[in-house]
Amino acid sequence: MSIRRSTKKIFSKAAWHAYNTHRKGFFYSTQLSKTTELFNAPLETILKFQRERLKQLIQHAVRTTPYYRDLFKGFGLKQNDLLQKINPDFIDISQILPLEKRVIRKQLKNLCSELFPTYQRIENATGGSTGTPLQFYQDRHYWNQRNISVYYFDRWAGWDFGEPQLIIWGAPADVNGDVNWKQKLNRYWRNQHWLNGFHLTDSAIHTTFAKMQRWQPTAILAYPSSLYQFAKFISENKLTPQWELKGIISSAEMLHPHYRSLAETVFGTKVYNRYGGREVGLIAMECAEGRMHINCRDIFLEVDSADPYTKPGDLFVTQLNNYTMPFIRYRIGDIGRLSDERCPCGNQLPILGELLGRSTATFRTKTRTLIHGGYFTQQFYNIVGVTQFQLIQETLQECVLKLVVNEQWTAETSNYIVQKIQDALGAEVSVQIEFADEIPLSKSGKREFTISKVT
Length: 455
Ligand SMILES: [Zn+2]
Known about the structure:
Elements: H1 3-24, H2 28-39, H3 43-64, H4 66-73, H5 79-85, H6 101-106, H7 108-111, E1 122-125, E2 135-138, H8 140-154, E3 165-169, H9 181-189, E4 192-196, H10 202-215, E5 219-222, H11 224-236, E6 247-251, H12 257-267, E7 271-277, E8 281-286, E9 292-294, E10 299-304, E11 313-319, E12 330-339, E13 351-358, E14 362-364, E15 370-372, H13 374-380, E16 386-395, E17 398-405, H14 411-425, E18 430-435, E19 450-452
Parallel strand pairs: 3-4, 3-5, 5-6, 6-7, 16-19, 17-18
Antiparallel strand pairs: 1-2, 7-8, 8-9, 9-13, 10-11, 11-12, 12-13, 14-15, 16-17
Helix pairs in contact: 2-8, 3-4, 11-12
The chain binds zinc ion.
Protein backbone atom coordinates (compact mmCIF):
# COMPACT_ATOMS: atom_id res chain seq x y z
CA MET A 1 0.00 0.00 0.00
CA SER A 2 1.42 3.40 -0.95
CA ILE A 3 2.23 5.89 1.79
CA ARG A 4 -0.25 8.36 0.32
CA ARG A 5 -3.03 5.77 0.34
CA SER A 6 -2.31 4.68 3.94
CA THR A 7 -2.11 8.28 5.18
CA LYS A 8 -5.42 9.12 3.51
CA LYS A 9 -7.00 6.07 5.10
CA ILE A 10 -5.74 6.97 8.58
CA PHE A 11 -6.85 10.58 8.14
CA SER A 12 -10.27 9.55 6.87
CA LYS A 13 -10.79 7.00 9.65
CA ALA A 14 -9.92 9.59 12.31
CA ALA A 15 -12.24 12.09 10.61
CA TRP A 16 -15.13 9.59 10.60
CA HIS A 17 -14.74 8.98 14.31
CA ALA A 18 -14.34 12.68 15.17
CA TYR A 19 -17.33 13.63 13.06
CA ASN A 20 -19.60 10.98 14.51
CA THR A 21 -18.47 11.65 18.08
CA HIS A 22 -19.15 15.38 17.57
CA ARG A 23 -22.59 14.70 16.06
CA LYS A 24 -23.68 12.19 18.67
CA GLY A 25 -22.16 13.67 21.78
CA PHE A 26 -20.58 10.40 22.93
CA PHE A 27 -17.49 8.48 22.15
CA TYR A 28 -18.28 6.91 18.86
CA SER A 29 -16.10 3.80 18.96
CA THR A 30 -17.77 2.73 22.22
CA GLN A 31 -21.22 3.06 20.68
CA LEU A 32 -20.20 1.10 17.60
CA SER A 33 -18.67 -1.72 19.62
CA LYS A 34 -21.81 -1.92 21.81
CA THR A 35 -23.95 -2.13 18.69
CA THR A 36 -21.67 -4.77 17.21
CA GLU A 37 -21.92 -6.79 20.42
CA LEU A 38 -25.73 -6.74 20.23
CA PHE A 39 -25.84 -7.66 16.54
CA ASN A 40 -23.55 -10.61 17.26
CA ALA A 41 -25.40 -11.72 20.42
CA PRO A 42 -27.50 -14.89 20.78
CA LEU A 43 -30.97 -14.66 19.21
CA GLU A 44 -32.80 -14.48 22.57
CA THR A 45 -30.80 -11.41 23.61
CA ILE A 46 -31.56 -9.61 20.34
CA LEU A 47 -35.26 -10.47 20.46
CA LYS A 48 -35.53 -9.39 24.10
CA PHE A 49 -33.97 -6.04 23.20
CA GLN A 50 -36.32 -5.71 20.23
CA ARG A 51 -39.45 -6.51 22.29
CA GLU A 52 -38.51 -3.90 24.87
CA ARG A 53 -37.96 -1.25 22.16
CA LEU A 54 -41.27 -2.17 20.51
CA LYS A 55 -43.14 -1.80 23.78
CA GLN A 56 -41.56 1.60 24.46
CA LEU A 57 -42.32 2.83 20.96
CA ILE A 58 -45.98 1.84 21.07
CA GLN A 59 -46.46 3.41 24.49
CA HIS A 60 -44.77 6.58 23.24
CA ALA A 61 -46.99 6.66 20.15
CA VAL A 62 -50.20 6.24 22.16
CA ARG A 63 -49.16 8.88 24.70
CA THR A 64 -47.90 11.56 22.35
CA THR A 65 -49.36 11.30 18.85
CA PRO A 66 -52.97 12.25 18.03
CA TYR A 67 -53.21 9.57 15.33
CA TYR A 68 -52.28 6.62 17.55
CA ARG A 69 -54.21 8.00 20.51
CA ASP A 70 -57.38 7.93 18.39
CA LEU A 71 -56.52 4.59 16.85
CA PHE A 72 -56.11 2.92 20.23
CA LYS A 73 -59.42 4.29 21.49
CA GLY A 74 -60.84 1.73 19.10
CA PHE A 75 -59.57 -0.99 21.42
CA GLY A 76 -62.11 0.23 23.99
CA LEU A 77 -59.52 0.68 26.73
CA LYS A 78 -59.06 3.61 29.06
CA GLN A 79 -55.82 5.54 28.72
CA ASN A 80 -54.18 3.95 31.77
CA ASP A 81 -55.30 0.43 30.94
CA LEU A 82 -54.18 1.08 27.45
CA LEU A 83 -50.64 1.95 28.46
CA GLN A 84 -50.50 -1.15 30.61
CA LYS A 85 -51.86 -3.39 27.91
CA ILE A 86 -50.07 -1.96 24.91
CA ASN A 87 -47.24 -4.29 25.41
CA PRO A 88 -46.25 -6.91 22.88
CA ASP A 89 -46.08 -9.46 25.70
CA PHE A 90 -49.82 -9.08 26.25
CA ILE A 91 -51.26 -7.67 23.08
CA ASP A 92 -50.93 -9.08 19.62
CA ILE A 93 -49.34 -6.31 17.58
CA SER A 94 -51.15 -7.63 14.52
CA GLN A 95 -54.33 -6.07 15.96
CA ILE A 96 -52.92 -2.63 15.19
CA LEU A 97 -54.07 -1.25 11.86
CA PRO A 98 -51.23 -1.20 9.29
CA LEU A 99 -49.91 2.25 8.45
CA GLU A 100 -50.67 2.99 4.81
CA LYS A 101 -48.93 5.59 2.63
CA ARG A 102 -52.25 7.35 1.95
CA VAL A 103 -52.77 7.72 5.71
CA ILE A 104 -49.32 9.32 6.03
CA ARG A 105 -50.22 11.76 3.25
CA LYS A 106 -53.52 12.67 4.92
CA GLN A 107 -52.51 12.62 8.58
CA LEU A 108 -48.89 13.72 8.51
CA LYS A 109 -49.29 16.20 11.38
CA ASN A 110 -51.34 13.81 13.53
CA LEU A 111 -48.66 11.15 13.18
CA CYS A 112 -45.99 13.44 14.66
CA SER A 113 -45.25 13.27 18.36
CA GLU A 114 -46.29 16.31 20.41
CA LEU A 115 -43.12 15.86 22.45
CA PHE A 116 -40.92 17.02 19.59
CA PRO A 117 -40.91 20.71 18.65
CA THR A 118 -41.10 21.38 14.92
CA TYR A 119 -37.46 22.51 14.74
CA GLN A 120 -36.29 19.07 15.89
CA ARG A 121 -38.04 17.32 13.02
CA ILE A 122 -35.88 16.40 10.06
CA GLU A 123 -37.91 16.38 6.86
CA ASN A 124 -37.38 13.55 4.43
CA ALA A 125 -39.23 12.10 1.45
CA THR A 126 -39.17 9.08 -0.81
CA GLY A 127 -38.58 9.62 -4.49
CA GLY A 128 -42.01 8.25 -5.35
CA SER A 129 -40.92 5.59 -7.81
CA THR A 130 -44.46 4.31 -8.09
CA GLY A 131 -46.43 7.47 -7.62
CA THR A 132 -46.22 10.78 -5.83
CA PRO A 133 -43.38 11.32 -3.32
CA LEU A 134 -44.10 10.56 0.30
CA GLN A 135 -43.12 13.18 2.86
CA PHE A 136 -42.36 12.30 6.49
CA TYR A 137 -40.25 13.30 9.50
CA GLN A 138 -37.35 11.76 11.35
CA ASP A 139 -35.15 12.94 14.20
CA ARG A 140 -31.48 13.12 15.09
CA HIS A 141 -31.64 9.96 17.23
CA TYR A 142 -33.13 8.03 14.32
CA TRP A 143 -30.33 9.19 11.99
CA ASN A 144 -27.58 8.37 14.49
CA GLN A 145 -28.93 4.87 14.98
CA ARG A 146 -29.54 4.42 11.27
CA ASN A 147 -25.96 5.38 10.44
CA ILE A 148 -24.46 3.17 13.09
CA SER A 149 -26.37 0.17 11.70
CA VAL A 150 -25.26 1.01 8.17
CA TYR A 151 -21.62 1.18 9.32
CA TYR A 152 -21.97 -2.15 11.09
CA PHE A 153 -23.54 -3.95 8.12
CA ASP A 154 -21.29 -2.35 5.49
CA ARG A 155 -18.38 -4.04 7.19
CA TRP A 156 -19.92 -7.39 6.20
CA ALA A 157 -19.01 -6.41 2.65
CA GLY A 158 -15.39 -5.79 3.60
CA TRP A 159 -15.52 -2.00 3.89
CA ASP A 160 -14.28 -0.20 7.00
CA PHE A 161 -13.97 3.43 8.08
CA GLY A 162 -11.48 5.39 6.08
CA GLU A 163 -11.22 2.94 3.23
CA PRO A 164 -11.85 4.29 -0.27
CA GLN A 165 -15.34 3.62 -1.58
CA LEU A 166 -16.87 4.17 -5.00
CA ILE A 167 -20.51 5.25 -4.80
CA ILE A 168 -22.70 4.97 -7.89
CA TRP A 169 -25.90 6.59 -6.75
CA GLY A 170 -28.88 8.25 -8.30
CA ALA A 171 -31.50 9.48 -5.85
CA PRO A 172 -32.28 13.11 -6.71
CA ALA A 173 -31.94 14.08 -3.04
CA ASP A 174 -28.45 12.57 -2.93
CA VAL A 175 -26.94 13.35 -6.28
CA ASN A 176 -27.47 16.66 -8.05
CA GLY A 177 -25.82 17.83 -11.19
CA ASP A 178 -24.05 20.49 -9.16
CA VAL A 179 -21.93 19.44 -6.25
CA ASN A 180 -21.18 22.30 -3.88
CA TRP A 181 -17.91 22.75 -1.99
CA LYS A 182 -19.40 21.31 1.21
CA GLN A 183 -20.32 18.06 -0.55
CA LYS A 184 -16.90 17.95 -2.20
CA LEU A 185 -15.19 18.36 1.16
CA ASN A 186 -17.48 15.73 2.68
CA ARG A 187 -16.60 13.23 -0.01
CA TYR A 188 -12.91 14.00 0.35
CA TRP A 189 -12.68 13.33 4.08
CA ARG A 190 -14.97 10.32 3.82
CA ASN A 191 -12.65 8.95 1.12
CA GLN A 192 -15.54 8.50 -1.32
CA HIS A 193 -15.72 8.93 -5.06
CA TRP A 194 -19.21 9.54 -6.44
CA LEU A 195 -20.48 8.69 -9.89
CA ASN A 196 -23.94 9.93 -10.81
CA GLY A 197 -26.08 6.86 -11.50
CA PHE A 198 -28.63 9.07 -13.29
CA HIS A 199 -26.30 10.05 -16.08
CA LEU A 200 -24.09 7.07 -16.72
CA THR A 201 -22.59 7.97 -20.06
CA ASP A 202 -19.86 5.87 -21.63
CA SER A 203 -17.36 8.67 -21.13
CA ALA A 204 -18.28 9.10 -17.42
CA ILE A 205 -17.88 5.35 -16.87
CA HIS A 206 -14.60 5.30 -18.75
CA THR A 207 -13.14 8.22 -16.78
CA THR A 208 -14.31 6.73 -13.47
CA PHE A 209 -12.94 3.29 -14.29
CA ALA A 210 -9.53 4.77 -15.17
CA LYS A 211 -9.55 6.65 -11.87
CA MET A 212 -10.50 3.49 -9.94
CA GLN A 213 -7.53 1.64 -11.45
CA ARG A 214 -5.28 4.16 -9.68
CA TRP A 215 -7.41 4.89 -6.61
CA GLN A 216 -8.35 1.24 -5.89
CA PRO A 217 -11.55 1.39 -3.83
CA THR A 218 -12.12 -1.31 -1.20
CA ALA A 219 -15.87 -1.43 -1.86
CA ILE A 220 -18.53 -0.19 -4.24
CA LEU A 221 -21.97 0.97 -3.13
CA ALA A 222 -24.38 1.16 -6.03
CA TYR A 223 -27.87 1.03 -7.42
CA PRO A 224 -28.01 -2.44 -8.98
CA SER A 225 -29.09 -1.13 -12.39
CA SER A 226 -26.22 1.38 -12.41
CA LEU A 227 -23.81 -1.29 -11.20
CA TYR A 228 -24.97 -3.51 -14.06
CA GLN A 229 -24.41 -0.73 -16.59
CA PHE A 230 -20.95 -0.07 -15.14
CA ALA A 231 -20.01 -3.78 -15.22
CA LYS A 232 -21.44 -4.20 -18.73
CA PHE A 233 -19.29 -1.36 -20.04
CA ILE A 234 -16.16 -2.90 -18.47
CA SER A 235 -17.01 -6.32 -19.87
CA GLU A 236 -17.90 -5.12 -23.39
CA ASN A 237 -14.73 -3.05 -23.63
CA LYS A 238 -12.64 -5.97 -22.41
CA LEU A 239 -11.23 -3.99 -19.49
CA THR A 240 -9.95 -5.71 -16.37
CA PRO A 241 -10.05 -4.20 -12.89
CA GLN A 242 -6.45 -4.21 -11.66
CA TRP A 243 -7.19 -4.01 -7.96
CA GLU A 244 -8.66 -6.16 -5.23
CA LEU A 245 -12.22 -5.14 -4.45
CA LYS A 246 -13.43 -6.66 -1.17
CA GLY A 247 -17.16 -6.38 -1.83
CA ILE A 248 -20.00 -4.61 -3.60
CA ILE A 249 -23.10 -3.36 -1.79
CA SER A 250 -26.23 -3.18 -3.87
CA SER A 251 -29.09 -1.11 -2.51
CA ALA A 252 -32.36 0.74 -3.23
CA GLU A 253 -33.62 -1.41 -6.10
CA MET A 254 -34.27 -5.06 -6.87
CA LEU A 255 -31.01 -6.91 -7.36
CA HIS A 256 -31.84 -9.10 -10.36
CA PRO A 257 -29.80 -12.32 -10.69
CA HIS A 258 -28.29 -11.22 -14.03
CA TYR A 259 -27.10 -7.95 -12.44
CA ARG A 260 -25.45 -9.88 -9.66
CA SER A 261 -23.77 -12.48 -11.81
CA LEU A 262 -22.29 -9.98 -14.27
CA ALA A 263 -20.94 -7.70 -11.51
CA GLU A 264 -19.50 -10.66 -9.59
CA THR A 265 -17.79 -11.97 -12.72
CA VAL A 266 -16.40 -8.61 -13.82
CA PHE A 267 -15.11 -7.57 -10.40
CA GLY A 268 -14.28 -11.04 -9.07
CA THR A 269 -15.99 -10.37 -5.74
CA LYS A 270 -19.32 -10.88 -4.01
CA VAL A 271 -22.31 -8.56 -4.33
CA TYR A 272 -24.10 -8.01 -0.99
CA ASN A 273 -27.75 -7.10 -1.19
CA ARG A 274 -28.80 -4.40 1.26
CA TYR A 275 -32.53 -3.84 1.76
CA GLY A 276 -33.97 -0.68 3.23
CA GLY A 277 -36.04 2.39 2.63
CA ARG A 278 -35.72 6.11 3.27
CA GLU A 279 -38.74 5.94 5.57
CA VAL A 280 -37.31 3.33 7.94
CA GLY A 281 -33.59 2.85 7.25
CA LEU A 282 -31.77 -0.44 6.85
CA ILE A 283 -34.13 -3.44 7.07
CA ALA A 284 -31.91 -6.40 6.11
CA MET A 285 -28.43 -7.15 4.83
CA GLU A 286 -26.98 -10.12 3.02
CA CYS A 287 -24.13 -11.98 4.72
CA ALA A 288 -21.21 -13.86 3.17
CA GLU A 289 -23.40 -16.99 3.07
CA GLY A 290 -25.99 -15.24 0.93
CA ARG A 291 -28.75 -14.92 3.57
CA MET A 292 -30.57 -11.66 4.26
CA HIS A 293 -30.36 -10.99 8.01
CA ILE A 294 -33.05 -8.75 9.50
CA ASN A 295 -31.89 -5.66 11.38
CA CYS A 296 -33.85 -6.49 14.56
CA ARG A 297 -32.13 -3.75 16.54
CA ASP A 298 -33.91 -1.04 14.56
CA ILE A 299 -36.79 -2.85 12.87
CA PHE A 300 -39.68 -5.14 13.79
CA LEU A 301 -40.62 -6.91 10.57
CA GLU A 302 -43.86 -8.79 9.85
CA VAL A 303 -45.18 -10.58 6.80
CA ASP A 304 -48.90 -10.23 6.09
CA SER A 305 -49.53 -13.88 5.30
CA ALA A 306 -51.31 -16.91 6.70
CA ASP A 307 -47.89 -18.55 6.99
CA PRO A 308 -45.08 -15.99 6.84
CA TYR A 309 -42.48 -18.78 6.57
CA THR A 310 -43.89 -20.40 3.44
CA LYS A 311 -46.29 -17.94 1.81
CA PRO A 312 -44.93 -14.50 0.83
CA GLY A 313 -47.00 -11.45 1.70
CA ASP A 314 -46.82 -7.68 2.15
CA LEU A 315 -44.07 -6.58 4.51
CA PHE A 316 -45.02 -4.45 7.52
CA VAL A 317 -42.14 -2.51 9.05
CA THR A 318 -42.09 -0.99 12.52
CA GLN A 319 -39.18 1.44 12.94
CA LEU A 320 -38.01 1.30 16.55
CA ASN A 321 -35.96 4.53 16.78
CA ASN A 322 -37.96 7.28 15.11
CA TYR A 323 -39.85 8.84 18.01
CA THR A 324 -40.67 12.06 16.21
CA MET A 325 -43.00 10.24 13.85
CA PRO A 326 -43.59 6.59 14.76
CA PHE A 327 -43.91 4.16 11.86
CA ILE A 328 -45.83 1.20 13.27
CA ARG A 329 -46.69 -1.69 10.95
CA TYR A 330 -45.90 0.46 7.92
CA ARG A 331 -46.85 -1.17 4.63
CA ILE A 332 -43.63 -0.43 2.79
CA GLY A 333 -44.88 -1.79 -0.54
CA ASP A 334 -42.61 -4.85 -0.85
CA ILE A 335 -43.41 -8.51 -0.75
CA GLY A 336 -41.35 -11.10 1.10
CA ARG A 337 -41.26 -14.18 3.29
CA LEU A 338 -39.44 -15.10 6.51
CA SER A 339 -37.18 -18.08 7.07
CA ASP A 340 -36.62 -20.00 10.29
CA GLU A 341 -33.27 -21.46 9.31
CA ARG A 342 -30.09 -20.72 11.21
CA CYS A 343 -27.42 -19.20 9.00
CA PRO A 344 -24.08 -21.01 8.62
CA CYS A 345 -22.31 -17.63 8.92
CA GLY A 346 -22.90 -17.83 12.67
CA ASN A 347 -24.84 -14.59 13.03
CA GLN A 348 -28.15 -15.22 14.77
CA LEU A 349 -30.21 -12.32 13.44
CA PRO A 350 -33.37 -13.81 11.88
CA ILE A 351 -33.47 -14.32 8.14
CA LEU A 352 -35.65 -12.76 5.47
CA GLY A 353 -36.11 -15.89 3.37
CA GLU A 354 -37.18 -14.20 0.19
CA LEU A 355 -37.54 -10.63 -0.97
CA LEU A 356 -39.74 -10.46 -4.02
CA GLY A 357 -39.63 -6.70 -4.44
CA ARG A 358 -42.29 -4.11 -5.03
CA SER A 359 -45.86 -5.24 -4.70
CA THR A 360 -46.58 -2.83 -7.58
CA ALA A 361 -44.33 -5.02 -9.73
CA THR A 362 -46.43 -8.05 -8.88
CA PHE A 363 -48.87 -8.99 -11.61
CA ARG A 364 -52.31 -10.45 -11.03
CA THR A 365 -54.18 -12.86 -13.28
CA LYS A 366 -57.92 -13.38 -13.72
CA THR A 367 -57.63 -16.51 -11.59
CA ARG A 368 -56.10 -14.39 -8.79
CA THR A 369 -52.64 -15.89 -9.16
CA LEU A 370 -49.77 -13.56 -8.28
CA ILE A 371 -46.90 -13.42 -10.78
CA HIS A 372 -43.83 -11.57 -9.64
CA GLY A 373 -42.37 -9.08 -12.14
CA GLY A 374 -39.04 -10.88 -11.81
CA TYR A 375 -40.53 -13.70 -13.90
CA PHE A 376 -40.68 -11.41 -16.94
CA THR A 377 -37.25 -9.93 -16.26
CA GLN A 378 -35.83 -13.45 -16.25
CA GLN A 379 -37.56 -14.28 -19.53
CA PHE A 380 -36.61 -11.15 -21.45
CA TYR A 381 -33.31 -9.73 -20.29
CA ASN A 382 -31.12 -11.79 -22.60
CA ILE A 383 -33.30 -11.88 -25.71
CA VAL A 384 -31.24 -10.94 -28.75
CA GLY A 385 -32.84 -7.93 -30.42
CA VAL A 386 -34.12 -6.32 -27.21
CA THR A 387 -32.02 -3.53 -25.71
CA GLN A 388 -34.50 -2.36 -23.06
CA PHE A 389 -38.01 -3.29 -22.04
CA GLN A 390 -40.78 -2.32 -19.68
CA LEU A 391 -43.94 -4.34 -19.21
CA ILE A 392 -46.97 -2.55 -17.81
CA GLN A 393 -50.09 -4.41 -16.73
CA GLU A 394 -52.87 -1.88 -17.35
CA THR A 395 -55.84 -4.12 -16.53
CA LEU A 396 -56.45 -7.83 -16.07
CA GLN A 397 -57.01 -8.08 -19.85
CA GLU A 398 -54.44 -5.65 -21.18
CA CYS A 399 -50.67 -5.14 -21.10
CA VAL A 400 -48.40 -2.61 -22.75
CA LEU A 401 -44.86 -3.67 -23.58
CA LYS A 402 -42.45 -0.81 -24.25
CA LEU A 403 -39.40 -1.89 -26.19
CA VAL A 404 -36.11 -0.44 -27.31
CA VAL A 405 -34.90 -2.81 -30.02
CA ASN A 406 -31.79 -3.21 -32.13
CA GLU A 407 -31.11 -4.50 -35.65
CA GLN A 408 -31.48 -8.13 -34.53
CA TRP A 409 -35.16 -7.68 -33.71
CA THR A 410 -37.51 -9.86 -35.77
CA ALA A 411 -41.22 -10.70 -35.94
CA GLU A 412 -40.41 -14.10 -34.37
CA THR A 413 -38.94 -12.36 -31.34
CA SER A 414 -42.13 -10.36 -31.03
CA ASN A 415 -44.28 -13.53 -31.15
CA TYR A 416 -42.03 -15.24 -28.64
CA ILE A 417 -42.36 -12.40 -26.11
CA VAL A 418 -46.12 -12.10 -26.47
CA GLN A 419 -46.39 -15.87 -26.01
CA LYS A 420 -44.35 -15.73 -22.78
CA ILE A 421 -46.55 -12.97 -21.38
CA GLN A 422 -49.73 -14.86 -22.29
CA ASP A 423 -48.33 -18.08 -20.81
CA ALA A 424 -48.06 -16.31 -17.49
CA LEU A 425 -51.08 -14.01 -17.50
CA GLY A 426 -53.58 -15.90 -19.68
CA ALA A 427 -54.07 -16.50 -23.40
CA GLU A 428 -56.88 -13.92 -23.54
CA VAL A 429 -54.63 -11.05 -22.38
CA SER A 430 -53.84 -8.56 -25.14
CA VAL A 431 -50.26 -7.31 -25.41
CA GLN A 432 -49.76 -3.98 -27.13
CA ILE A 433 -46.16 -3.39 -28.21
CA GLU A 434 -44.84 0.18 -28.27
CA PHE A 435 -41.39 0.88 -29.69
CA ALA A 436 -39.34 3.70 -28.20
CA ASP A 437 -35.84 5.19 -28.46
CA GLU A 438 -35.42 5.04 -24.73
CA ILE A 439 -37.38 4.01 -21.67
CA PRO A 440 -37.15 6.83 -19.17
CA LEU A 441 -36.20 6.15 -15.56
CA SER A 442 -38.92 6.58 -12.95
CA LYS A 443 -39.20 9.89 -11.09
CA SER A 444 -36.89 8.55 -8.40
CA GLY A 445 -34.31 7.51 -10.98
CA LYS A 446 -34.95 3.80 -10.66
CA ARG A 447 -35.21 1.48 -13.63
CA GLU A 448 -38.50 -0.36 -13.56
CA PHE A 449 -38.89 -3.36 -15.85
CA THR A 450 -42.34 -4.29 -14.68
CA ILE A 451 -45.21 -2.20 -13.38
CA SER A 452 -48.67 -3.44 -12.47
CA LYS A 453 -51.54 -1.02 -12.18
CA VAL A 454 -53.91 -3.81 -11.12
CA THR A 455 -54.49 -3.94 -7.39
ZN1 LIG B 1 -25.57 -15.30 7.59
